[in-house]
Design brief:
Chain lengths: 279, 163
C-alpha cells in the first residue's frame, strides 16, 4: 500500500493529476471498511487528512462554506449551522455512533455517493452547491447534479470536492427531517426525508422543497409535488392530491435493505406527515 | 511515496516513534508495535466500537485509521486510565456493577464513557445510552453498563460538591 500525504492543497491537486488512479482518503469510514475487507489491496492512497484549510467552516453575509473535511460531529457543534441548517445537523446526528461522526466527513459522504447517504436529503432542500477543484481549475455543481448513479459521481479524473456552499435561507414556516431505519446508530437508512416550507400571509404555499433519500439510486427532489402545491393552501384534500403525485417523482428501489412497496408507502407517509405538521 | 514510513505519535502522554508500513491500522500498531493490548478488535468494520481510542481528544474507531493519519497526533488508549493495581473510578464501577462480562467491548465502552463523564454528562440513562450508541456489547444487555456509568457520574458529582 503506497500513501501520498500532501500538506497543501496545491500539492494534493498536483499529485492527483499525476496519479488519477489514486483513491482520495478523508475520514476513512467508508474506505477503510472496504480495505479491511480486502477489496482495495494495493491501491495508491491520496490521504487528504492533512489539508487543514478544508476542515474549516466559514461564513459570508449570504452563505456558509463547509470544507470537504468538516466532520459530522463538527457540524453538530457549530452554532451557525445549528441555527440556519438544522436539518443537516439532524441528519449528521443519525450517522453511526460518535466514533463514526467524529471521523466521517461531509465530502466523503458525498463522494461515496451511496443511495443511503444521510446528508443528501437536507443538502438537496437547502439547494447546496458543491465546489470542485483539480490542478486544471475550479468548477461548481448544483448538489443535485453531482450524482451519476449508485456509488457514481460526475467528478472528473483528478478532481476533488473542496467545499459545500449553502445560502442562508429565509426562515421557513415548517422544516422537517426524518430517517426511517432499523437501528439508530449503525443502520443504513431505508428512507430519509427532508422538507422546507414557506407560506404566504394568506396561508398559501410560497415555496416548498421536499427530498427523499435512500429511495432511488440517488437522492430525489419531488419537483412535481413541489410545483403542484405552489400557491395552494395545504388543506387535507390538496395534501391527498399531492401525495398521489409522489409516484411521478420517485421510482423506489428493491434491495436487500427494503422493498419497493415498503419504501413507497413510507414515502407517502413522510410527505403527508410533513404537509400536515403544524396545521 | 514510501511504503515504509517513520513517524512520531504521542501515545498516552509519551512520545513514540513508529517505523513500518504507512497503511497499518492504528489498532494493530497499538497492539503489535507498542504492546498496548488493552484495545480490542471486535468487528474490524467500524460497527462495534470495541477498538475505540481517543485521537487528538476525539473518539474514533482505531480499526478504521491507517497509522499515517495519526502522524503527530495524540492517542489515548484504555491504558491511559488506571493500572490493574490502581483502577480508575470508571473501571472500578464496571467491575463492581457488572458492566463487564467477557470484556471484549469493555475497553472501548470505557473510553466512550470516559469522554461522556469528562464532558459533564448527566446521570440519566437515555443520555448515557446515546453517548454509548457506537459501542456494542453481546453479553451484558447494556443495563449494567449504564448503571456503572451512572455510579461514576454520581460519585464524581459528590466529589465536586464536597470541594
Ligand atoms: C458503522 C458505520 C455506520 C455508518 N452509518 C452511516 C449512516 O448512518 N449514514 C451515512 O450516510 N453514512 C454512514 N456511514 C458511512 C460513512 O461514515 C459516511 O459516508 C462518511 O461521511 C464518509 O466520509 P469519510 O470521510 O469517512 O469517507 P472516506 O472513507 O475517507 O471516503 C469515502 C469515499 O469518498 C472519496 N472522497 C473522500 N473525500 C473526498 C474529497 N474531498 N473529494 C473527492 N473524493 C473524496 C474517497 O475516495 C472514497 O471513495 C457509516 C459507516 C460506518 C463504518
Ligand atoms: S473493531 Fe473497530 S469498530 Fe469493531
Ligand atoms: S462484556 Fe462481552 S461484549 Fe460486552
Amino acid at each position: 500500500m503506497k500513501v501520498l500525504r500532501p500538506h497543501s492543497v496545491d500539492d494534493a491537486l498536483e499529485l492527483y493529476e499525476r496519479h488519477p488512479d489514486a483513491v482520495p482518503l478523508a475520514g476513512g469510514t467508508d474506505f477503510m471498511v472496504a480495505w479491511n475487507g480486502g477489496s482495495e489491496n494495493g491501491r495508491l492512497i491520496l490521504d487528504l487528512s492533512a489539508l487543514a484549510s478544508w476542515r474549516r467552516i466559514r461564513d459570508t453575509p449570504s452563505m456558509l462554506r463547509l470544507g470537504a473535511l468538516v466532520t459530522h460531529w463538527q457540524l453538530q457543534q457549530e452554532t451557525l449551522v445549528k441555527k440556519k441548517f438544522p436539518l443537516l445537523v439532524d441528519a449528521c446526528a443519525t450517522i453511526g455512533g460518535r466514533q463514526i461522526q467524529s471521523r466521517g466527513t461531509l465530502g466523503g459522504n458525498i463522494a461515496n455517493a451511496s443511495p443511503a447517504g444521510d446528508t443528501f436529503a437536507p443538502l438537496a432542500v437547502y439547494d447546496a452547491r458543491v465546489r470542485l477543484r483539480s490542478a486544471a481549475g475550479r468548477r461548481k455543481l448544483p448538489f443535485m447534479d453531482v450524482f451519476a448513479g449508485v456509488k457514481k459521481t460526475h467528478l472528473r479524473p483528478g478532481e476533488l470536492i473542496e467545499l459545500v456552499e449553502l445560502d442562508f435561507p429565509k426562515k421557513p414556516a415548517r422544516q422537517f427531517f426524518r430517517k426511517v431505519g432499523t437501528r439508530s446508530a449503525s443502520a443504513i437508512s431505508k428512507t430519509v426525508a427532508a422538507g422546507l416550507l414557506w407560506l404566504r400571509r394568506d396561508g398559501t404555499v410560497r415555496e416548498l422543497r421536499f427530498a427523499l433519500g435512500s429511495m432511488a439510486p440517488t437522492v430525489r427532489r419531488l419537483y412535481s409535488v413541489e410545483s403542484f402545491l405552489l400557491g395552494k393552501k395545504p388543506t387535507p384534500r390538496v395534501v391527498k392530491e399531492a401525495v398521489a403525485l409522489l409516484e411521478a417523482d420517485v421510482d423506489p428501489i428493491d434491495d436487500l435493505r427494503s422493498t419497493r412497496f415498503y419504501r413507497m408507502e413510507v414515502s407517502r407517509n413522510l410527505l403527508r406527515a410533513f404537509l400536515r405538521s403544524g396545521s | 511515496m514510501p511504503k515504509k514510513i517513520e513517524l512520531e505519535v504521542m501515545i498516552n502522554g509519551q512520545k513514540q516513534v513508529y517505523r513500518g508500513p504507512a497503511f497499518k491500522r492504528l489498532i494493530d500498531v497499538l497492539r503489535e508495535d507498542f504492546a498496548l493490548t488493552g484495545t480490542k478488535e471486535g468487528c474490524g468494520e467500524g460497527e462495534c466500537g470495541s477498538c475505540t481510542v481517543l485521537l487528538d481528544g476525539e473518539l474514533v474507531n482505531s480499526c478504521l485509521i491507517p497509522v499515517c493519519q495519526a502522524e503527530g497526533a495524540r492517542v489515548e488508549t484504555i491504558e491511559a486510565l488506571g493500572t490493574p493495581t490502581a483502577l480508575d473510578q470508571l473501571q472500578t464501577f464496571f467491575l463492581t456493577k457488572g458492566g463487564a462480562q467477557c470484556g471484549i467491548c469493555t475497553p472501548g465502552m470505557i473510553m466512550s464513557a470516559w469522554v461522556y463523564v469528562r464532558e459533564g454528562g448527566g446521570s440519566d440513562a437515555a443520555s448515557i445510552r446515546e453517548a454509548l450508541a457506537g459501542n456494542l456489547c453481546r453479553c451484558t444487555g447494556y443495563q449494567h453498563i449504564v448503571e456503572s456509568v451512572i455510579a461514576t457520574v454520581q460519585a464524581s458529582n459528590r466529589r465536586t460538591r464536597k470541594k
